[in-house]
Amino acid sequence: MSEPILELRGINKSFGPVHVLHDIDLVVNPGEVTALVGDNGAGKSTLVKCIAGIHPTDSGEVLFDGKPVDIKGPREAADLGIEVVYQDLALADNLDIVQNMFLGRERTKGGLLDETDMEQAARKTLASLSVRTVKSVRTQVSSLSGGQRQTVAIAKAVLWNSKVVLLDEPTAALGVAQTRQVLDLVRRLAEQGLGVVLISHNMNDVFEVADRIACLYLGRMAAVVGSKDVTHGQVVELITAGRSGDLGIARPEAATI
Amino acid sequence: MSSEEGSMTDTTESPAQETPQQGAISDFGIDTTSQSTGEAVRDYWARVRGGELGSLPALLGLVVLLIVFSSLSDTFFTLGNLANLLQQGASITIIAMGLVFVLLLGEIDLSAGTASGVTAAVMALHLIHNGNLLGGMGDTVFYVFCGLLVLAIVLAAVMKVWAGAALSAVALVIAGVGIPANAWLEMLLAVCVGAAIGTITGFLVAKVGIPSFVVTLALFLVWGGVVLQLIGQGGTLGLRDDTIFNVANGNLDFVGSWALFVIAVGGYAAVVLTRHFSRLRRGLVAQPTTLVLAKIGALAVLAAVITYALSLNRAPSNLVVIEGVPFVVPLVLVLLVIGTFVLDRTSYGRHIYAVGGNKEAARRAGINVERIRMSVFVIASSAAAIGAIVYSSKVGSVDPNAGGGNTLLLSVGAAVIGGTSLFGGKGRLRDAVIGGAVLAIIQNGMGLLKQPAAVVFIVTGLVLLLAASVDALSRRRAATAAR
């Protein structure tokens, strides 16, 4: 087992009087898909935003590549190699795939955009992810389907030699075939050695691609289990009640303090 | 159903997926080869049908208008009139080019017209009072003017729009030092004052967050009042200076005309061919070489015919000689090339399109959205100042109505008629030139046909309405054709 690429220790986060995250511990290993599940309001999105540097944490430690880091903003997270693919895709419709993938980080030569270089790099990235559905990398994003857009958004995250990719409900708005595409892509990201965190509500998706499942319950990490070791039902119980048999938070009474 | 697992995982909508599990790179096979001419044409046609019309409708309109007016009027298609047409349309075109930047963000600048009037008035005052703006404006107005320039410098510096800060500072120096009149200095002053005006507009829109429609509507009135204050009710500031007069009325000599031809066509060919062969060398999809060469050839022939025609004597009488390409042609060309270059080949230009397309995506990509939004107003007002120099030069004076009337409306109209979208994110600088030409031809042709102003206004308005409808409909088409 390799060293964890990203490790959270005792993360706490409050919004005013509301204590959203309680002592969260989470380990993201390279080459693994870690699913982050939990009911609405369990703190999934907040946790992702803390990792991405959008929200500062109140206490706790973040270790990246074994070294403690202090992520103050999205820029620093990106510099470390942490990329987030948001639920509402951050793509500009009027630009083509290459332009979107390099948006904000254009490659220049002598002060001018180096289009050919960017186009080649974009193609290489898409090819390495075996993206087959896009006819030309110069297609405008406005003419892509939902699944293709999601693909471009994910490929954009991969382009930057990122080490950890956080996906916030990437399949929420997609049809069957497109969900298929995106899940395959998620799997391939892990095969390339990236640490992948997948937020999802869909248990089928989770069991299909995840190696480990981290269940959040009311802002606490109820359990982190191997997806092979549990059943659908157990995970659902962890999500809704915070415990399932001897898994999860030991006693519900203890959790209410 | 004993199909291979591999083919199961590759369910896609694309019909080209009949043969699964090819090598990864070969999936882009269609994307790597150079296209044939037929493919390139089909590709273009598919995009037009998909709603990406670009400036095609405006170009068609241009051709129709040329044919209609040539057949109705004997004088329309004469050399003298065509050269006149270029000079008439230049100021609107230049202001429209600046507005394209604003429109690309989905914003509007209603104050560009009267702001251009302010720059023209300042330019004329500086010239007439031999550099003594304090004397020309009176104490109070002068100190307020300098105060606003200082404010513009501060605002631009706060927002890190350095060009705006630098140009405002130059304006402050020219105004404060009182250097004696010099035509080039006056023109520089006009552009710098324009930049300062744009800085203030941009700050109010981008940082304070007032909708650009309201900010520029208010400033439209304000600058209109300022022009009146600077010139005085019923007054007129004459521009008696050969250099300024020549901007809109002068012509290049014979050698200069052909030198312009060589530089323009040669430069275009060099840029296009360099990019084309660099793409071919790198194995990226490229248009067929014959098509590229044909395009360059067609442009060269067209430019040669125009240059030849304009270098003939077109004076109506034998007493004078009027020949050569009007100065406004290289002026518009230079602005067009610089602006297109900025929009297409720099990160800044790319960011303008991105902010116009999806502000939130741009923000998440780490683009300083506020700075981009502020900077386009600086560009628009600076371009408006150049437009002001041209129309003041054409008339030879600046009156209290400078930049008022329908200057702005025609400029916005030119940009929209050319194909710039009012919804943002779509448009090119050449749209302004094509749209400006359409409007200039309508105004000029209707004038030659002795149509009353009423008819000219109505026709111009209807053409603008038509262009806006084409924009809206093609957007809807693009939205439905997407999936």
From TrEMBL, chain A:
Keywords: ATP-binding, Nucleotide-binding. One of its GO terms (molecular function) is ATP binding. SUPFAM superfamilies: P-loop containing nucleoside triphosphate hydrolases. InterPro entries: AAA+_ATPase, ABC_carbohydrate_import_ATPase, ABC_transporter-like_ATP-bd, P-loop_NTPase. Pfam families: ABC_tran. Signal peptide: none annotated. The keyword ATP-binding applies. The keyword Nucleotide-binding applies. SMART domains: AAA. Residues 6-243 form the ABC transporter domain. This is D-xylose transport system ATP-binding protein.
Automatic annotation (TrEMBL), chain B:
One of its GO terms (molecular function) is transmembrane transporter activity. The chain crosses the membrane at residues 53-73, 85-105, 110-128, 140-158, 165-181, 187-206, 213-232, 252-271, 292-312, 324-343, 372-391, 403-425, 432-449, 455-473. Residues 1-33 are annotated as: Disordered. Pfam families: BPD_transp_2 (PF02653). GO terms for cellular component: plasma membrane. It is a multi-pass membrane protein. Residues 1-24 have a biased composition (Polar residues). InterPro entries: ABC_transp_permease. Its main location: membrane. It is found in: Cell membrane. It comes from the Bacteria. Part of the binding-protein-dependent transport system for D-xylose. Probably responsible for the translocation of the substrate across the membrane. This is Xylose transport system permease protein XylH. It comes from Lentzea jiangxiensis. The lineage of its organism: Bacteria, Bacillati, Actinomycetota, Actinomycetes, Pseudonocardiales.
